[in-house]
Design goal:
about 425 residues, ten-stranded mixed β-sheet, alpha/beta, Adenylosuccinate Synthetase, Chain A, domain 3, 3 domains, 13 helices, Adenylosuccinate Synthetase, subunit A, domain 2, Adenylosuccinate Synthetase, Chain A, domain 1
Length: about 425
């Protein structure tokens, strides 16, 4: 494994948490390298379901070191709430098991407030953010006015930076959005306390990861969101504010590209997305409703119903190219069981011309009409499959076609929500 990356190959919600949890058994270290608590990873072990947002999916193993890298933005309250949740669920978390980068940026109350107020101001042109302050925090990071975890550990540094930021943000909150100003003393006191609580977890995680890889340990990098939500390569502006693609690992975890040996793209056997933006294969009929209900397509973080559609191989091939994917993990093959005819998008018709690439312009993408190839369906027997040979013959054909179209082997197949309903069918 050495340095193995797991990314979402669609619009997120592909089942990355499940696949990361599955692969974490063979890893020594599991790392989140971007995003924040706007992510939602659901992991099901035996008869128990865990919902994670900020903490890496490897946390369910007692012997794995979990790392929150510098590319992640951290809401301290959400962090400690998640720790409490895990403790209640019987998952022990200590500073020996979980560490946080001293270079990670901190989500402040004004980030969350501005996030919500700006969405309200956009009206029906809203982006559909989770309102958790992720975008405004990344804005401050790149504007070079952000507050980092290391700043929380120094009261004087925090005070100096927070005074400047609160004064500036209060003007925006009041004069631009008509909101209620924040109180400096209250925010300062709260975040000084968070700093002290965080202190035992804080490390220079780049050093830890470098030493781990150099010593031969296996490191698993877990992306949040998906390729089509990448700030550069997604359906901009309906995207997240970071780089979920494999290229985001080096910057977000502080390692060199030569330390990444493989990249697995996680993809549902169909396509979903949450929020606004074009979606060429979206289904607006009973079939879309069937997939949503059978697959329980509702957001882990927001609870929002996901838009559902047929598998879009144009998107998947795009993800393979952008992230240099070496293999694919196909999830929710069981959700399609019982459908007589299953369609797969193999190209777009744009203004009378057939294209096999993903356009940058949303206006162009909105005009794209999917070109479908039809497959015979399969029955519910796939849910009990333990090996590739156990799968229904039509399901095998479906998977082989995905490999053929994308030029990328399928290494992992999931046929149900539980950790045990996952099979490795090719080496990765």
């Amino acid at each position: 494994m050495s340095g193995l990356v797991v990314i979402g190959a669609q619009w997120g919600d592909e089942g990355k948490g499940k696949i990361t949890d599955f692969l974490a058994e063979g890893a020594d270290v599991v790392v989140r390298y971007q995003g924040g608590n706007n992510a939602g990873h659901t992991v099901e072990v035996l008869d128990k379901k865990y919902k994670l947002h900020l903490i890496p999916s490897g946390i369910l193993y007692d012997t794995k070191l979990c790392v929150i890298g510098n590319g992640v933005v951290i809401d301290p309250k959400a962090f400690f709430d998640e720790l409490s949740y895990l403790e209640k669920e019987g998952v022990k978390v200590s500073e020996d098991k979980l560490i946080v980068s001293d270079r990670a940026h901190v989500i402040m109350p004004y980030h969350k407030l501005i996030d919500r107020l700006s969405e309200q101001m956009r009206g029906n042109k809203d982006i559909g953010t989770t309102g958790k302050g992720i975008g405004p925090c990344y804005t401050d990071k790149h504007e070079r006015t952000g507050i980092r975890v290391c700043d929380l550990l120094n009261k004087e540094t925090l005070k100096e930076k927070l005074e400047i930021n609160i004064a500036a943000k209060n003007r925006i909150i009041k004069e631009v959005y008509g909101g209620e100003e924040l109180n400096f003393d209250e925010v300062y006191k709260e975040y000084v306390e968070y700093g002290e609580r965080l202190r035992p977890f804080v490390k220079d995680t780049s050093v830890v990861l470098y030493d781990a890889i150099k010593s031969g340990k296996k490191v698993l990098f877990e992306g949040a969101q998906g390729t089509l939500l990448d700030i550069d390569y997604g359906t901009y502006p309906y995207v997240t504010s970071s780089h979920p693609i494999s290229g985001g690992v080096c910057v977000g975890a502080g390692i060199g590209p030569t330390m990444i040996t493989n990249a697995i793209g996680v993809c549902k056997a169909y396509t979903t997305r949450v929020g606004k933006g074009p979606f060429p294969t979206e289904l607006f009929d009973e079939m879309g409703d069937y997939i949503r209900e059978k697959g329980f397509e509702y957001g882990t973080t927001t609870g929002r119903a996901r838009r559902c559609g047929w598998l879009d191989l144009v998107i998947l091939k795009y993800a393979v190219r952008i992230s240099g994917l070496t293999s694919l993990a196909i999830t929710k093959l069981d959700t399609l069981a019982g459908i007589e005819k299953i369609k797969v998008c193999v190209g777009y018709e744009l203004d009378g011309k057939v294209i096999d690439y993903f356009p940058a312009s949303l206006e162009d993408l909105e005009r794209c009409k999917p070109i479908y190839k039809e497959f015979e369906g399969w029955d519910n027997s796939v849910e009990g499959a333990k090996t590739f040979d156990d799968l229904h013959e039509n399901a095998k054909k479906y998977l082989r076609f995905i490999e053929e179209y994308t030029g990328t082997r399928v290494s992992i197949v999931s046929v149900g929500p539980n950790r045990s309903q996952t099979m490795v069918i090719n080496k990765f």
